[in-house]
């Protein structure tokens, strides 16, 4: 049985938080976006990125989701500070005071975390901040974006913008629900070192993670 816990008009359209048994699901404009059933690949996105940079990394996570990536970052001994950019205030609220709070053990209360309510593309264009690791999990993949504007992040110009926000030796991590050879090709054309991981899931194609170093 599925129960709707909240329904709001978000910045990218209708957002729905619902409970299905012991798990939570987030639906955007009628399309399944994320849930709390597994999260292995979301955790690996940040833990592998942190493994690839020395010292206490300053990490940017694009997209709060259900908080799995943030929790994994805080649990990693190589992460010192985390900035999360999330444009939907409802998602922030569900994670800060709502039912998703217990999913990640109230990660937003950690003093190492800064949450920025903003559209990631617009924020990246105006910020001068730089990071050791930048992890993107705002879409279902480079060709399965929540909104059309996000597609710019995965273009050649978008990759240039992301690279500019990385410190020397920094790592870009990208999550996808499917393999996208054309995006992998653009990554390899822009970055000197690219690694691709495929993470099996219970049903369908494996999730795919890319890690690129400047």
TrEMBL record:
> Has keyword Nucleotidyltransferase?
no
Question: What is the designated name of this protein?
Answer: Spermidine synthase
Question: Which UniProt key words apply to this protein?
Answer: Polyamine biosynthesis
List each coiled-coil range.
none
Q: Return the InterPro entries for the record.
A: SAM-dependent_MTases_sf
Question: Which Pfam families does UniProt cross-reference here?
Answer: Spermine_synth
GO annotation terms (biological process): polyamine biosynthetic process
**Which species is this UniProt entry from?**
Amycolatopsis decaplanina DSM 44594
Indicate whether Ribonucleoprotein appears among the record's keywords. no
| Superkingdom | Bacteria
